[in-house]
Design goal:
- By secondary structure, this protein is α+β, with helices and mostly antiparallel strands.
- It has a domain at about 5-120 and about 210-225: Peroxisomal Thiolase, Chain A, domain 1.
- It contains twelve helices and 14 strands.
- The protein has helices spanning about 25-40, 55-60, 65-70, 90-100, 120-130, 145-160, 165-175, 190-195, 260-275, 290-300, 330-335, 340-355; strands at about 5-15, 45-50, 80, 105-115, 200, 205, 215-225, 235-245, 280-285, 310-315, 315-320, 320-325, 365-375, 380-390.
- β10 and β11 (about 315-320) form a beta hairpin.
- The chain starts with 6 loop residues before the first strand and ends with a strand.
Length: about 400
């Protein structure tokens, strides 16, 4: 029988995103898992969901579920690895949510971990390229960056937007990362910096692309009736959760400038939560490349087609009001942690809703949405999180 209790995010754990040359993948994961457990001492996970994209290629390691459960001392529990490209973290979060919502388990831990620095140079590029269609794109030398560049070129052509149209997203991200202790780049940039940045895959410049870094983030999901009445922080429930898929190869997409999976998963999650876009107080979107930030805002409904680039102003997105995005720096400045991205996003949104965001705090935040993408929008995982007052 399905549980009637709400599913809440009971604990979060984050480690700084960066280049952790001297640490192993399992040690990074353990640090985040221990931090999440410290949020809710006494809650023992009954299942472990691991989000990872590149461990088989870069670390030579599969079977991460059992490996991390053993390393953390969670003997006897069920454990799995979930892979969906850059959306792996969001997909793992959803599986943990579904398990608890079903009533079959009371407590689940979701851990996203990525160790990019186990290899360098071409080995990393080759591994990242496995995220595109291997038979029809990667074999021709297409990488995720090349995909984003082609999409951006089409966007600038179709909209007539200036070459620096997407600068605002990078400026917003870097501004918000300055006060995030877990961010890789903690320095603001100016519009002039963006315009003078070197090209990495024309028309993408250096500030249009997020740095690929190591990282680990964890959340504990639990039935609300498993928590005590004297919680240290306000409770945050999972109001809506959805995953949707589209096509992987660019040449198979009907419209390069629309992300149907992002639109569909967001619509479902919002509907489940009974929330409209106008009720969101923050949106942690996937800005691995700045072009996707604009396309997500358009596809989800914050902007009309071809107008998403106009929305980044003064650290917020303007659309019939103000909704902050990338409030801790996003992928662009926090760092792109691959399969762990979706867990970072969820944890950061929870910190905002619990008023634990420090200098990054969005005043009065009660409802947040997090969305991560796999590939060029081929997979989208969206979650709506709602603060519960009076708990």
């Amino acid at each position: 029988m399905a549980s009637t209790a709400e599913v809440v995010v009971a604990g979060v754990g984050l480690i700084p995103a960066g280049e952790h040359w001297t640490e192993s993948l399992r040690s990074l994961a353990l640090r985040a898992m221990r931090a999440a457990r410290a949020d809710v001492p006494g809650l023992q996970p009954q299942a472990l969901y691991v989000a990872n994209m590149l461990a088989p290629s870069l670390s030579g390691q599969t079977h991460l579920g059992a490996l991390l459960a053993d390393f953390a001392g969670y003997h006897g529990i069920e454990a799995y690895t979930l892979e969906a490209g850059g959306a792996s973290g969001g997909v793992a979060f959803r599986q943990g949510y579904l398990a608890v919502a079903s009533g079959l388990i009371d407590v689940a831990m979701v851990i996203g971990v990525e160790k990019m620095t186990d290899k360098v140079g071409p080995a990393v590029e080759s591994a990242v390229a496995s995220n595109v269609d291997a038979d029809h794109e990667a074999v021709q030398g297409v990488t995720p960056m090349a995909q984003a560049a082609m999409v951006m070129r089409r966007y600038l052509h179709e909209t007539g937007a200036p070459s620096d149209a997407l600068a605002g997203f990078s400026l917003v991200a870097h501004k918000n990362a300055v006060t995030n202790p877990n961010a890789f780049y903690r320095r603001e940039i100016r519009a002039e910096d963006y315009r003078r940045a070197p090209m990495v895959s024309e028309p993408l410049n250096l500030f249009d692309a997020a740095p690929i870094v190591d990282g680990a983030a964890a959340v504990i999901l639990a039935r609300s009736d498993r928590l005590t009445s004297n919680d240290a922080y306000p409770r945050v429930r999972v109001g809506g959760s959805s995953v949707a898929c589209s096509v992987v190869a660019l040449h198979d997409q009907r419209d390069l400038l629309r992300l149907p999976a992002a639109a569909e998963s967001a619509a479902r999650a919002l509907s489940q939560a009974g929330v409209g876009l106008e009720e969101l107080d923050l949106f942690e979107l996937h800005d691995q490349y700045s072009i996707y930030a604009a396309l997500v805002l358009e596809s989800v409904g914050f902007a009309q087609r071809g107008r998403g680039w106009e929305l980044a102003r003064d650290g917020a997105i303007q659309s019939d009001g103000t909704i902050p995005v990338s409030t801790f720096g996003g992928c662009k400045a926090r760092g792109d942690t691959g399969g762990a991205t979706g867990v970072y996003q969820a944890a950061e949104a929870v910190l905002q809703l619990q008023e634990r965001a420090g200098k990054n705090q969005i005043a009065g935040a009660r409802v947040g949405m997090a969305q991560c993408l796999g590939g060029a929008g081929a997979t989208a995982a969206t979650h709506v999180l709602v603060r519960l007052d009076g708990c």
